[in-house]
Specification:
The protein has 19 helices and 28 strands. The protein has 547 residues and is α/β, with parallel strands linked by helices. It has a domain of 77 residues. Helix 6 packs across helix 7 and helix 15 packs across helix 19.
């Protein structure tokens, strides 16, 4: 796969108001079945996580050893088809043992040494193609590998039908043994019969391929002009075309972990760089490092000792996260990484986050009265949780959903509930009352921040109308905070105050059971002056689920 040329009111509510608040909270209505959370969510297939490991680089083995448990498949570059038809073998038995102990499937890569017309001779006749298929079967089946990854590149466009037939014959040989046929395929946004990707007939190859690893990189390559290696717009187009032709369930998005350093003053070619090398260049005197927003790629610009200007375009954890999101949104099978050892180590944290309920989820249906999907965070709202969100303030009160529904233990009563986290709240489904309740996430954030302003006070005498003392917790709510609490169903949606007003990060804030109010001095209206803090985000951040 070494592919280097590609292109809540007062405490006593009026009776009717109390009933309305209860109705909003409990959501008890005739069609009760529709209001249950998704106790049986639509399950998406796990995302395939594939990595290429190269035997010639120590950094590649170190990355594999540290992160094998995060992967589904690994393709070691064990085999090379030589010009004479023999196989160069660099297998590593100890590496295979390590991967199998980690329950990782091994799909070795085989590449071609001969290219263009020289490679044609190796697939020119039916007999030659049968011989090659038999050779590959002998590499896979007796060694009990899980399949093969065919990485034949630099093939003449006119050999397109020969490559297609070769893949068909390989499939016929190894599929009966339960082995996977996978292929590294040049990325393109539409069919083409010329150029570097001309030999790859997506539609014709599809029946023979179990996974198509689409090499969506080298849009700008070492021998061309400086620019992003894998610009997100092009990557999206490539992904969509592949999904349309192979079927989304077969497509793996090949992602680069490397970059290129172009001397834009005096050289026509670039040098390949790792993430670490790009980072070193960013520390040179006068160097700048930015994210190019249109392409969602990183670029370092610097001047070398000879006065030549350089551009280094490369991939980071942030750009990987963007492409990972694309994989989820497109609904394809997964992704592959070329190659591990070169990467920003933060990509492994992105993968770990995706294993949590906060990991982006695919959209499972159109928006309607009972469900809504938020592309902003990659999560959906369903049934009772959606109705509670709609009725009680939506984004302004709760923010966007940060997780899917999942089950966790409530620290307040030590019981298990179906919950969903939002930027400013946690929803909990109470099956004993068939109702939605707010979790005491304000209490959790308050405790985590060492209970600021939490010492209670004695009841003040002669309180003015803009202040209220809560005997239950011995705290006062005053001014704009009291006005917000009174006019926004504070009893239900904020709960009791846990603190006095305090200053945090330059803001006046006050903690409540279900949230934290924050004051904006520049606001002119109540809604501009008072907002609910992002306590849900903060709680999940402490778990490492969100950034």
């Amino acid at each position: 796969m070494a592919h280097f040329r590609l292109h809540a009111g007062h405490a006593r509510l009026h009776t009717s108001a109390a009933l309305m608040a209860l109705l909003a909270l409990s959501l008890i209505v005739p069609n009760a079945n529709l209001l249950l959370p998704r106790t049986q969510p639509v399950a998406a297939a796990p995302i395939v996580r594939w990595a290429y490991y190269v035997t010639y680089a120590k950094d590649s083995f170190s990355a594999l050893q540290a992160n094998a448990s995060a992967l589904t498949y690994v393709s070691p570059n064990y085999f090379t088809l030589q010009s004479d038809g023999t196989i160069k073998n660099t297998e590593e038995p100890d590496t295979n043992t390590m991967l199998r102990n980690a329950r990782v499937k091994i799909i070795p890569l085989i590449r071609n040494a001969a290219t263009n017309a020289d490679f044609t001779a190796q697939i020119a006749t039916p007999e030659a193609r049968d011989k090659l298929a038999a050779t590959i079967a002998d590499l896979v089946i007796p060694r009990n590998y899980d399949g093969i990854n065919i990485d034949f590149e630099d093939i003449r466009p006119q050999d397109r039908p020969l490559l297609t037939d070769t893949m068909s014959r390989i499939a016929a040989r190894i599929r009966p043994a339960g082995k996977l046929v996978t292929q590294a395929i040049v990325g393109k946004a539409k069919d083409s019969t010329g150029g570097y990707g001309g030999a790859f007939d997506y539609a014709a190859l599809a029946p023979s391929v179990d996974f198509a690893m689409i090499m969506a990189y080298d849009y700008h390559y070492a021998g061309g002009e400086a620019g992003p290696v894998a610009p997100i717009g092009w990557v999206r187009d490539v992904t969509n075309f592949a999904a349309q032709t192979f079927g989304a369930g077969k497509v793996l998005l090949g992602m680069p972990l490397y970059g290129y350093d172009w001397d834009v003053t005096s050289s026509d070619s670039a040098k390949a760089v790792t993430y670490g090398q790009a980072l070193e260049r960013s520390k040179r005197p006068g160097a700048t490092r930015t994210v190019d927003l249109p392409s969602q790629s990183e670029v370092v610009r610097y001047t070398d000792g000879g006065g030549d200007r350089h551009e280094v375009w490369f991939e980071s954890a942030a750009t990987f996260d963007t492409k990972f999101t694309l994989v989820q949104q497109a609904g394809i099978a997964g992704f592959g990484l070329w190659r591990i050892g070169q990467e920003d180590s933060g990509i492994w944290d992105v993968m770990k986050r995706s294993d949590q309920p906060a990991g982006r989820a695919p959209q499972t249906g159109d928006t309607n009265a009972n469900q809504r999907y938020f592309t902003e965070t990659g999560h959906g709202l369903h049934n009772g949780f959606k109705q509670f969100w709609d009725i009680n303030g939506g984004i302004a009160r709760f923010g966007y959903p940060l997780t899917e529904e999942f089950t966790e233990r409530n620290p307040a009563d030590d019981r298990m509930y179906t919950v969903q986290y939002f930027e400013r709240a946690r929803f909990e489904w109470r099956p004993d009352t068939s109702s939605v309740a707010l979790g005491k996430i304000g209490q959790e954030a308050f405790n985590a921040n060492n209970r600021p302003g939490g010492i209670g006070i004695d009841p003040p005498s002669n309180l003015p109308p803009d202040k209220r003392y809560f005997l239950e917790t011995r705290h006062v709510v005053a001014g704009s905070f009291k006005q917000y609490w009174d006019t926004n169903n504070g009893q239900t949606l904020l709960g009791l105050p846990l603190s006095e007003e305090v200053t945090e990060n330059g803001k006046t804030v006050q903690y409540f059971e279900y949230g934290r109010l924050e004051f904006n001095l520049a606001g002119t209206t109540l809604q501009e002056r008072v907002s609910v803090g992002l306590v849900g985000t903060e709680v999940l951040r402490t778990r490492g689920w969100v950034r």
